[in-house]
What does this fold into?
Amino acid sequence: MSRDLDRRTFIKGTGIAGVAGLAGCTGGPTDGNGSDDGNGSGNGDGNGDDTGNGDADVDANIGMIYAEAGLGDNSFNDAAQRGLLEADEDFNISFNEVEPDDTGEFSQFQRQFSESGDFDLISCIGFAQEDALAESAVDYPDQQYMIVDTVVEADNVANYVFKENEGSFLIGYLSALLSQTDLTIGSDDDERSTNPDESVVGFVGGVDAPLIRTFQAGFEAGVEYADGDVEVISSYTGSFNDPNAGREAALSMYDDGADIVYHASGGTGVGVFQAADDEGKFAIGVDSDQSLTEPDFAHVILASMVKLVETPVYESIQNTIEGSFEGGSVVELGLEDEGVACVYGDEIGDEISDDIKDDVDDVRQQIIDGEIDVPEEP
Amino acid sequence: MRENAEQNQDQELKKSLIDRFKSLSYVWQIIVGTIGVLALIGVVGLLFPASPAGDLARIIFRWSVFTQALRISAPIALAAIGGIFAEKSGVINIGLEGLLIISAFTAVLVTAMIGPAETVAFIPAIWIGFLAGVLAGVILSALFGIVCIEFKADQIIAGLAVWLIALGLAPFASTLYFGGRDTGSLGTTIGNWPIAIMLLSVLAAWVLLNHTTFGSYIRAAGENPKALDTAGVSVSRIRHAGVLLSGFFAGMGGASLSLSIGLFIGTGETMVEGRGFIAIVAYLFGNYNPVGAFGASLLFGGLDAIQIRLQQIGYGIPDTLVQTIPYIVVILVLAFVGRTRIPKAAGKHYETEE
It folds into this structure.
C-alpha cells in the first residue's frame, strides 16, 4: 500500500518534471520568467503585486538582472531580491526580474530592457555582468543602470562595491585566535574541536578572479595581524559549482592540520562544510549567514562574512525615485557602512568566548578608524 | 597431413604467444614506467627533502591523497566504463556528460522525495535515490539508443543532444521541486561507497567484456557487425544492450557524484563540470579496456589530488596554472604513451541484409 503510494508520487513527480522540462525547452532563454518581447510587461513568477507596464501610475519601474546562480541561491541573489522587495514595500514601484542562465545572456537581457525604454533603472547583480554592461551603457546613454560588485566607468552607471577584504580581515583575525584556543563543541559521537598545538587555517576560493583574491588578501592579512605564527594555506577549485572539488580541497587542508577553513566559492563551499563535518572541524561561511541558509551544517559554521547586497539595491532605487541617481559614482560599502560584517554562527557562535568577540570588535573599530590598513591583493 | 596440422598449430601457438607478449609488454611498459616515475620521485625526494621533489614525494606517498584520488576518479571511471560498452558495440556515446547530469539530479530528487532519513523496506532512502539515478541514466540512454539505432540519427549529434537535454532539464526540474537550480543539502551522504562501487564495476565490466559470450557479441557488433549478423545474432539488439549498459554505468557515476556530497548543483555547467568529457578521454586512453580506463581515471584523479596540495604549498606559480596540471599531463601521456584502436564499425549504422 505505502509502496504503491511512493510509486505514485514518484511517477507524478517525474511526470511533472518531464512535462515542465519540455515546456522549459520551448520557453527559450527567458526561463519562463518575464516577457519574451522585451516590452517589460508584467512578470511571470507572480510575486509582483503591482506589475504595471506603464510609467504613469508608479514612481519607478525597475529591471532586475540577477547573477548566474539565480534566485533561490540562499545567498547573493536572494539578498538582492530582499532589497528590491523592501523597496517595493516602501515605495510605489513596479519591477521585472530575469535570471540569466549563463554569461552570454547578460548582454541580451540588458539590451532587451534598455531597448524597451520602460525602465527607470536597470539593476545588474554581480561582477560577471561588467563586460556586457560596459557595452550596453555606451549604446543606451539615456538609460540609468546600477551594478553591484564591480565598476563600469560610464556616466549612466552607479557602481556599488563591497570591501570584502575588510570583512575577510575580521574573519582571518577571528580564525587565527580560535585556532590557538582549545575549542571543543558537541559530545561523544559528534565532537568537533580545534588543535591549539598546531595553528593552521585554510582558505578555499572558487574561480581565481580579482574579486575572490580580495577575500584571500583580507583573510591572510587578518591572520597575520593576529599572530604571525599561524599558518594560512589557500587553494582555488576553479569553479563556483563544484562541491566535490571544494570538499577535496578542504579535506586536504584539515589533513594538514587546519582547524578552520574559510571559503569564498559559492556553491563549491557546501563541500567545505561537508569536509568540516567529516573531519570534526570548523568552517566559515560567506556572502550571507550560512548557518541559517545551510541549516544542515549549522553545527560546523562558526561565523560568516556577510555582504549586505540589500543595501545597494534599495539605495539605488531610492535614489532613482528621489531624482538623486548619481551616474558614474562608485560607492564603497565597508565595515563602517555595514556593507560587510562578521556574523557569528546561529548554532555554535555562542561557544566563542566573549574575550575573543571583544577583540574582534576592537579590530573592527580600528579598521573603521583607519588605524589598520587592509590590503586588496594577496 | 598430421605433421602439417601440427606445424600450423605450432605456428599459431607461437603467433599468439608473440601477440600476447606484445600486448603484455605494452601493459608492462606502462606498469614499469609508472613505478619508475614514482620511485624516481621517491628517491630524489628522500635525497633532497627540501626540494620541490621532496614536497612532491611527501604529497604522493600519503594514504589520504590516495583515497582522495580514488574518490575523484570514481565518477569518471564509471562513466568511462559506460562509454566503453557503447562504443565497443559500435555506438559512439559522447552524451556521457548528460547521463551523469540527469542521474546526479534524479538521485538527489528521489532521495528528497522519499525523505533523506526514511527507509523503504529496510533500504535507506539514499540508496533508493541511487538506484533511481541509475534508472534515469538507463532511460535517457535508451532514448539515445532508439534515436541512433532505430532511426539512424547521427551519433555525435544525438550525443550532444543528450548532453544539452540534461543540461536544461535537470536545473529546470530542480527549480520546480526545490525552488532553485541548486537542490540544497540532503543532510546525508553515501560516504566512500563510490570507491567500492567503482572497483567492483571495473572488475565486473572486464569480465563481462572479455570473458563472456555476451562480451564477444558486443565486441563483434563494433568490429564486424556483418559476421555477427551472419552468426544469427541481431546487431541492433546487441547495440541496444551496449548503449543501455553505458547508461547503467554512467548512471552509477552520476549518482555517486551527487550523493557522495548530498546535493545537486545546477548552476552553469552543473556540478558535473565536464567529468563526462574527461571520461571519454579516459576510455580512449585506456584503449577500451575497463582496467585501462580505470588506470587513466586514477591518473587524472591522482594528479588532481596532487594539484590541490601543490597549490597549498604556495610556490610562486599562479593557482590557475597549477589547476591545469592534470589536463596537461593527461594530454602528454595520451600523445606519447597512448595506443588507441577505435572499433572498426564504431559510428557506422548497420543495415541487416535479410
Observations:
- Chain B has two domains: 1-61, 64-336.
- Chain B has a mean pLDDT of 87.
- Strands of chain B lie at 119-120, 123-124.
